[in-house]
Amino acid sequence: MVNGKYALNVPEAEAVRKIFSDYIGGKSLKTIAAEMTIPYNMGKSVWNKNMVCRVLENEKYIGENGYPKIVSADDFKQAARIKSERNTYRKPVPQDIVQSIEITATEYESTDEIHRMTNEINRLLDSENPDKAKAEALIIRCAQLKYAAIREVKL
C-alpha cells in the first residue's frame, strides 16, 4: 500500500500476467506452477497447481475493490471458461433417479492368421539383420487384422 491505496508490485504483476497468458495459451496448471520463478509468498517459494488456480480465480487482478488492474476482464473470463471446460469433475447423478444404463464392451478374438503373422513378426525382429520395412508392413497389417477382429458386445 502506498498512501492508503494498493500499489502495483511489478514482479508479482508480471507473474500474474504470465500465469494468465500461459493458461490461455494451453498450458496446464501443473506446468505453469513448475515454471514459476517468483516466490508465491514469503513463506512458500515453490508453486503448486492450486496456487496457480487461485490466481486465475482472483477477481482482484481485473481491478476489483480498489486493486490495480493487472489483466483484462476478457482474459479473466477466457481463463474461467477454459478452466470450466477442462474441469473433469462431474456431479454424481442423484440416487433417487432410476436410469437405464446400456453398457457396451468390446471383445477381441485372435485368429489363426493373426497368430501366424505375430510369430512371423517375432522371428523377423529376432533375426540378426531384420528387414525394417518388411517388419513395419507386417506390424501394420497385423494391427489391421486385430482391429477387424474386435466386435462390440452389449452387456
Q: Your description of this structure?
A:
This protein is elongated. The model has no long low-confidence stretch (mean pLDDT 86). The relative contact order is 0.10. With 155 residues, it is mainly α. The termini are far apart.
Write the SSE topology.
Elements: H1 10-24, H2 29-35, H3 49-57, H4 73-86, E1 104-108, H5 112-126, H6 132-148, E2 150-154
Antiparallel strand pairs: 1-2
Which structural class matches the secondary elements? mainly alpha
Mean pLDDT: 86
Order of SSEs: HHHHEHHE
Rg over CA atoms: 28 Å
| Gross geometry | elongated
Low-confidence stretches: none
Helix proportion range: 40-55%
Q: Would you count the extended β strands for me?
A: 2
Q: Order of strands in the sheet with the most strands?
A: 1-2
Largest sheet: 2 strands, antiparallel
Q: Supply the number of structural domains.
A: 2
Distance between the termini: 65 Å
Number of helices: 6
Task: Give a concise summary.
This protein is mainly alpha-helical and 155 residues long.
Defining key terms:
155 residues, mainly alpha, two-stranded antiparallel ribbon, 2 strands
